[in-house]
UniProtKB/TrEMBL annotation:
Species annotation: Bacterioplanoides pacificum
Transmembrane feature ranges: none
Name of the featured protein: Uncharacterized protein
Phylogenetic classification of the source organism: Bacteria, Pseudomonadati, Pseudomonadota, Gammaproteobacteria, Oceanospirillales
Family indicated by similarity: Belongs to the 5'(3')-deoxyribonucleotidase family.
Stored Pfam families: NT5C
Amino acid sequence: MAKYIVYVDMDHTLCDYDEGFGRHQLKHPELKYPQSEPGLYISLKPLPNAIESFEWLMKHPALDVYILTAPSIQNPHCYSEKRIWVEEHLGMEAVRRLIISPNKGLNKGHYLIDDCAIGKGQENFEGELIQYGFGRFKDWKSVISFFKEKLAGE
Ligand SMILES: [Mg+2]
């Protein structure tokens, strides 16, 4: 059976970047770009239901799921911090599925779950964009309902 390839973004989709950024800014008020200081990406909290939802997608036999995240290129620590975050919150199976890429439009696949529609190649993604946090995809519960409905009709 051919599987649907699904990509899942990290910042503002799996991870609560806003909460972490605010916390990091308080810690480093003197910095213009507090995100360039090590420790932000590793400390992000998962968004509500993000972990269970990712695990549901990853275990589904009809889906081939990857994490697709763009790096903060000014911050070399973010590459390793993202990798550690994935292991800590989602485990080694998810680490094997972690793709860090500045251009999401190069990836082949069917679905991209991402809070941004443009900026890191999302606009050139060949599949369908599920814009997390907007419209019918306002939260993880509605994203999972979409896939349950979609896959039930197969
Ligand atoms: Mg994002």
